[in-house]
Structures are given as structure tokens and as C-alpha cells.
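assembly run, all chains below
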Amino acid sequence: MQEIPLHQIDNFLLLLKWAHQKGFEIAEPHIMEPLRLYYGRKDDHVHDDLYKNLEAQKKVKEWRIVSNIYKHIFHVLSFEADHHPLFKMLGAFLIDLQSEPALRKTTFTYEFFKAYEHPLKNLQSVVSKEVMTGIQEVFESHDDVHVVVSHNLTTNQRELLNAEARELYNKIELAYARGDEANLSYLLAQFTGRFCNFPEVKYRDEVDAMIMKIAENNGAFKQDMRSRLAVRLFQSIARSAEKMDIKTAVRGITTYIITFQDDLSLPYREELDHIEEKMYHFIQQHNLWHRVKLNTSNSRPQVVRS
Amino acid sequence: MSIRVSKRNTEKDSIFQLEGRLDTAGSAILKLELDMATQNPAGNIIIDMSKVSFISSAGIGITVKAQSILKPKGFEVRVAAPTEEVKKVYDLLGFSHVVKIFPTLNDALKA
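ok done. output:
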């Protein structure tokens, strides 16, 4: 059975979280209804101890059985009036998928992603529209240019970031030593996305070197890692723009260009165009070009062939 | 279509004249041309951006990539006559140090 790519799982998780925040109106048509269509009718059987059994099978790593138990749980929950329990279990399933290659290859997992293929595309376009509208409104309504160009870390903030970087880097080393590729690509993308806007944070060089080393001999890892990273970087840029932290958004875009160069097939490319257009227009309107520019004397982009 | 690309060759250089937006959709069109032009280059690649109304990270990314391929072969990508805003975006993101920018097409040809 074909293995579901990790970046698809990541994206599903993101959309699931977003739909959960938006409540029943979004959850019902985009998340619950596709499952109801997949199952056809309500499950009237009584399933005792499904949850207990799920945990037991996870412990013994019987991933085909785990997959079938999830299938039963979703069947029951997708017909319930309250969407919260279903979302909780969908989240758990997706997190398990991130870490377990065997679970990513089961028949149910394949069918599950097939069932959500179009609903997720629709949900994606709803999310994109909302993000873009939100950013447009922010740029159109904002005049306080003093807020948007401030970007200096205090000593305390720097120490906290370095501690966070160390913790994450320790996990990366552990995953590397274990040869746990799924977790490793997740952690590397997480590290790069989290700290891309903070060149002063420690372990960045070590992480970059590790990515280069692994990607050199493993094309699939490289592609998966890139897609995961693209989503994280986009999120980071969009969040900075929403907060009117333009300097941070600019740094994120520079990192994006260095990392992905001419790869136009990545997720959220068109959304990024839209953010950039609104942002450059805002910078032009307020004549901020020099104030938000990267300090290129000590952080000139280093471009290497990817 | 967001961009129109026309190409002509001088004795050694290739000149691409662009008209429109160099966003993701426009960059995909230019990328096809640049991929071919960077395979066996006989000279520099000059991209006339005098009629480009908008450039995003996608457009900058493909010029940066083309530059990284050409440079080891002894040639370079030159951006010619960009509009004020396009030039400012290259500057803002720090890539006017990676891809050379010239005020006119003539300057790019003579350099």
C-alpha cells in the first residue's frame, strides 16, 4: 500500500486545528460529513473498550490493528452531534501517523486520505481566503509604523530562545542517532521554521549541516523535509505579517528564497505572493524600505545550489 | 497569463524581455525559459525587467537559482532596468548582492 507523505499529514493537522478553532459550522461540512459519506450509515454496534484496546495495540506496535480500531472509533464519532471527541481522535491518529511508517501504509489510512482528498482542498481554499483577507485588512487598517519595525531581542528573550533551541537540537540528535527519519524531518523542519527569523540563535549551523548531509543521499527525505519546511516557513511569515512585524516577515521571506530558490511546486506559494504584494505596497505607502531592510553587512544571504 | 516573455540573442548573451507580474504563475513561465538557457550557456543571461509591475519571492528565487547555475560556468544573470519597486524588493530581501542589477539594458550589456 502506498505510504502517505508526511507533509500531507502535517497539513491535515494544521487544517484540523484551524477547523476546530472555527467551530461546528466549519467542522461539520469539511471534517465530519466526508467521514459520514465514507461510512455510509451510522454504526449501531456496541464497541466495548475501543479506546483501551487502541492503547494496548499501540504498545505492542500492531499498527494494522491500530488502524482498524481508529476506523471503528471514527465511525462512531462521526455520527455524534458533538464534534470535539472526533477532532480529538483525528488529531491523535494524525500524530500517530507522523511517527509510524507502518501506520502510514495501511489500507484504512489510504482510504481515509482518499475520502478527505476533495474536502481538504475545499477547506484549504477557505483557510487561504480567510488568511489573505485578514492580512489585507491588517495592512489596510494599520498606521502605527513604530510597532512594525521593532525587532530587538532582550537578553532574557535570547536566553530563552537558546534554551528552546538546545532542547530541540537534543531531540534532533537523538532522532538522528536512532535513524528515525520521520521524526527527524519533522524536528528539522520545526527547528528551521521556529528559528528562521533569529539568526543569532545557537545550533542553526549544526542543523543546516545535518540537513545538507542527509538530503545529499536521500531524495525522498529531502522532498518531504522541504514540503514540511515550506508550510512552517509560510506560517511563520503569515503570522509575522498578521502581527505587523514586517522585519521578521522580511527575514522569513529571505530564508524562504535561500531555501527553496526556484521550487514553485511548494504548498502556499500563491498565498505567499499575496502577502508579499500587500506588504510591499504597505512599505511603499509608508516609505519603510530602509527601516525594515535586512542588515546585509553582517547577514548577507549565502546562496548555494540546492 | 501573468507574464509575457520574449527572448533574443546577441552575439554572446541571451536577453529576456518580460512584461507583467513575476509572481508564482509568471515565474513558472520564466523558469521554463531559464532552465533551457542555463543548460549550455554561451554567455550571460540578461533579464529586462523594465515592464515588470510586481515581483515576489518566486521571481527572485528563479533568478537566484539561475545565477547559482551560471556562476560556476563563468557567466552571470543580470537584471536590467527594473522598475523602482522591483529594485527595492531585491534590496529589501538582500538579493541585490547576489544578482547584479543595472539601471538600463545598455549598462547590463556593456558591463
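The radius of gyration of chain B is 12 Å.

Residues 40 and 73 of chain B are 9 Å apart (CA to CA).

not gonna interpret more than that til we talk
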